[in-house]
Amino acid sequence: MGSAPESEGGLHILIAGAGIGGLSAAIALRKQGHRVELFERSRFANEIGAAIHITPNANAALLKLGIDATNLGAVESEKLRVFPPNGPEIFSLDIKKTAGFWRHRWLLVHRAHLHEGLKIAAQAPGPGVPARLHTSNKVVDIDPHSATITLENGKRITGDVVLGSDGVHSVAKTKLPGGANLRSFSSGKNAFRFLIARKDALEDPETKELADELGTWYMFDSPDLRVVVYPCANNELLNFVCIHPDTMSKIHDGSEWDQGASKESLLEVYKDFSPQIRKLLAKADPATLKVWPLLDTDDLPTWVEDRLAVMGDAAHPFLPYRASGGAMAIEDAISLGVMLHRGVTVEDIPARLKLYEKARRSRATTIQQLTRKSSHGPLPPAEEKSMTEYIYGHDEHDHSTQVLRNDLWSQGPQKYWRQPIVFGPMPGPRQNFQGLSRLARSQKSTFQTTSIKFKTSRTLLQNLLPNDSWSFATPSTVATATFSQTLLNGMDWLGGGGYRHLGLYIDGVQYTKANGEVVSGTYLPILFESLADPIVSGREELGMPKLYSAIGAKEREASYYLQASWEGAVWGRFRWEGLEDEDPAAANAGPLQGVNAGVLVHRYIPKVGADCKGEADVEYAVFVPNADESKLLVSKVTRVRKASKAAFEIDGLGWEALPTLHHIIERLAEIPVDEILSAKIVEGEGVPDVSSARRIEPRPIAMPPKRTADAHGGSSKRTKTSATAQPQEETQAEAPAPATNRASKRWSAVSVSRNLAQSFAEHADYDTYKTLCQARVDGKSPNDDDDDDDEFDEDEEEDDEDEETSKSEAKCDMGETCMCNKPAAEHPEHPFSISEAGHNKFIDQIAHTNVREPDAFDMYVFNDFAGYGVWEVLQNLVVDFVEAKDNWKEQWAVCQALPFYWMSGAVMPFTMLDAHSVTSTFHLLGQMFLVMLATLESKDLLKPDSEVKNLGMVMAQYLLLADELREYTSLGSDDDEGPDFSRFDHYVLAYAKKHSIGLRGPSKTDKLVKAIEDDEDDEMKLPRRSADPWKWAKAYKAFAQEHGTIFTVQKKGMGGDSFDITSWTSARRKQHSFNKKDPLGKKEMDAIKQGMVMQMG
Q1: Residue 1016, exposed/middle/buried by CB under 10 A (0-12, 13-18, 19+)?
Q2: Rounded distance, CA 489 to CA 485, Å?
Q3: Beta strand 569-577 with 645-650: parallel, antiparallel or unpaired?
Q4: What amino acid positions are annotated as catalytic residues?
Q5: CA–CA dist 260, 286 (Å, integer)
Q6: For residues 483 and 612, which has the higher predicted lDDT (pLDDT)?
Q7: Can you say whether residue 841 is alpha, beta or left, with left for phi > 0 and alpha for psi between -120 and 50 degrees?
Q8: pLDDT digits (tens, 9 = 90+) for 372-385
Q9: Rg of the chain's alpha carbons, rounded to an integer?
Q10: In whole angstroms, what is the distance from residue 649 CA to residue 172 CA?
Q11: Bridge partners for 641 per DSSP
């Protein structure tokens, strides 16, 4: 058995695989003092392939590792141009123009150059122990419990941790629970990859224009074929990725991503593209032309087992549509470096690896879903924008650090989050001992404020926000902040003396109240003061986050030097140099330089008692509005000096030097300075007493949990609290009252959602439940290119095409000559029908969705708002079903509406949310339909001659729904005991067979039935008849308890109209509107109040 290399301290970490992810992990972990060994199956340990994107989030991660990709030949992505296969440009995007939105640049790098740079950094002298790379050493077995690997030559090596970075065909993942049976499969696409010299394209007059612009990448796109071209290697090479159906190119065994291909096959695939593109493709070197199977896999149940974890493609393989495969592997490495930091013990490893999965899984899985969605073709601009902000607006080091920090805070005995509490009222800056105001005597108090404003990281500052009611107003990863120090003198309440204070002021922060209104301002997380008296009064009376620090300054003629310390330990040094006077008349601010609308702070006072540790006695947000302060006292600026040069350094020192402040100073020291924006000194008279400070909420409210790391960027996800239907504990037979008596239970006093519910209830009579014929429904979801791989005989295929052509050419005239709206009972042969109530319910869902789409109102709330709005719509459908317990026809209307709602494409934003929420919801919806079938069965309506005339068609639609949900990976698996609702279509087919119901309608029905029948694992058994055969009451209650709240703080329940923008206050709509005006005028709101429904164009 092998032994660890000789070295002191740190863990012994074994990494299977030395690709981009494995090497990145090696760098991150060696920097933490660990001993790292990599085992690479190839003999060269050098990436081949072509080029990759280093998106802003990936660039942030690489820079944390000390890798500047521009030193490896990376070029900045400056412009994207999109063309059809033949024809003029469709659109272009100036990436360079918007680059300032992200802290780090979007780069394009040769994969081999990046890999070589990582390999050198992993093994080079420097911080930590250089990693050891073993090539031609294939790992064939892993023991997760002893952290032992077995090599192909039989050698066994034991470490403390094993990381599987061994790709899509990972050995490591087979050692995880549920991982042994997972196999990779084709996504239906392959990709040619190759590089050419850019000069070859420039020297050819026909292709020159496609290589002229530096940093520009081109996309030639069609529904099935795509060619992407972009530069790398100091703009000397052009990289090609040519995606196409896997039936158009040959893969030898479907496993290797670097198989050779012929130029002839490349040109044959793209034979219908323009001559210019084909001329460019023809420059491919056959010796380097490769074809790459685009593989996918089902989600792993877990990424970790004891002392083994997987990362990169071994955990989450990506299709190449969002430039995220390499980026996610690098982010994994960063997260592992945070979780396995210096000093972690072997005993800590299992828990830390689970924490790594907690930090990474949701984000990686979400981006996998976005990538799969992108494979179906171009996306609407709003969705593209949302995806971009989600992926790029992230810093994994900041995120994982906060996940770890929260975990460490939660361990051991409960801890105080404390401010000192002083007994009894005291005289202070706002009153004397008799309670009289001191404001008049503050007119002659003087101030001297020195400030440095700088550009920094929003994702890091976000971790200083108190909870999820606080957020940044923009998802940009760039933020601005100011360190401001003020010397106050002539203070009446201090007997004419004074003191200094030094604070961090963070711009662009907002607090969202429980009613949805937003208060914006400059957030103050910490304020140091040099005297105890103002600290006590400010904390007690204002809720200010004040702590003691000695603050001293030396002023020269043209310079100013400041230092902050505690008991002689200097933790901060600030300097202003090259000071020059400016006109003081231009200054309009007093002691709080750089503050905009006002100051936001978070007040917290703990409960008293050893048994109350960790509990707040008082906790709420406070706002100090500048406008109100200036009404009480107007400061007069007498002198302004601007510095030509300024800087500051903060040293976290250690607990010994700063026994009460280290945890704070250490966090301040982490804040990066991207650019100094301004530095100045302002002096004047008149010091406000901050008596306009007020609690934002009108009364104490239940506060949200402490802030968790947010993988979704700057805009926190939350919404207005509203009444919602409570989870039902009864069986379905004891569910709440029907629709006509429930219109006000879930809705706000004024909203389109309320009006829709009321309208449906008022018009739901006997006639609306009659089933009417409809035009043909093919059952295609949006972006479905119907590219089935099934093989047919030529004659059958031609017959099908003729039949489809004739049907597509038939014109609908709403029943004059076609079948639309004719009674289904009179035309039993017609396969497509829906009740009027079902159709109305479906149309209502579209309207519900539209009023939850910020883009329709020219608004931005947060990245996934529309997705959560759809989730609320789906929850309302479930509540509609539950509340209609006395009316099975209304329940049937709900069940008819759901597949039509899916096929409309409106549900798509919901599928972009986290996998667990999505799959749990669709499991519940599938279970709901099975409850419906059980209800029909109990009423003897589940039969061929049922009065439910569209029974076979709707059941077939649910087979199609399940199939498409699997395509979008939205069904996942169901690990709960009992029925497997991830396969609800199998139960639907079982009901159809049991009662001899013919399934018809969607064109894929026969294929779907055959696929279920061919499933070797199909052992689905229907439950025995009972009052609640599918355990619906229990499932509904459990779902409501876990998911019903979504983002509301104080109430639990299902559905409602919290995301319905028409239910919001005008102030809240203005806050999120692009032009800061309410998109709904008086005319629209009056109409909604009168019960009208808004339909969006």
Answers
A1: exposed
A2: 13
A3: antiparallel
A4: 193, 230
A5: 8
A6: 483
A7: alpha
A8: 777 766 666 677 77
A9: 32
A10: 44
A11: 581, 681
Phi, psi for 736 (deg, rounded to 5): -65, 180
DSSP-derived secondary structure letter, 424: S
Identify the CA nearest to 691 among candidates 878, 541, 546. 541
Task: Measure the CA–CA gap between 818 and 833, rounded to whole angstroms.
Answer: 13
- Any residues with CB less than 8 A from the CB of 414 and at least 6 apart, and which? 613, 614
Residues, the chain: 1097
Q: What kind of architecture, by CATH, is found in domain 12-68+108-183+300-377? A: 3-Layer(bba) Sandwich (3.50)
Q: What pLDDT does 412 receive?
A: 61
Q: Counting beta carbons within 10 angstroms of the beta carbon of residue 287, is it exposed (0 to 12), middle (13 to 18) or buried (19 or more)?
A: exposed
Amino acid at the residue 537: S
* Continuous segment of H or E residues that includes residue 243: strand 237-245
Mention every residue, 6+ apart, whose C-beta is less than 8 A from residue 797. Answer: none
How far is it, in rounded angstroms, from Cα 415 to Cα 463? 19
Three-class SS of residue 562?
A: strand
pLDDT tens string 987-996: 999 999 999 9
Q: Please state the φ and ψ torsions of residue 1093, each to the nearest 5 degrees.
A: -110, 135
Confidence check: pLDDT of 767 > 90: no
Structural tokens at position 158: 């034991």
The CATH code of the domain at 438-693 is 2.40.400.10
SS (H, E, C) 854-900: HHHHCECCCCCHHHHHHHHHHHHHHHHHHHCCCCHHHHHHHHHHHHH
Domain ranges of the chain: 12-68+108-183+300-377, 185-295, 438-693, 752-781+810-1087
Confidence band for 814, pLDDT divided at 50, 70 and 90: very low
Give SS3 for 803.
helix
Q: What is the distance, to the nearest Å, from the Cα of residue 657 to the centroid of all Cα atoms in its chain?
A: 39
Distance (Å, rounded) from C-alpha 991 to C-alpha 978?
Answer: 18
CATH architecture assignment, domain 185-295: 2-Layer Sandwich (3.30)
* The token pair that represents 243 in the structure block: 């995606």
Alpha carbon of residue 785 to chain centroid: 27
Tokens of 852: 């939850």
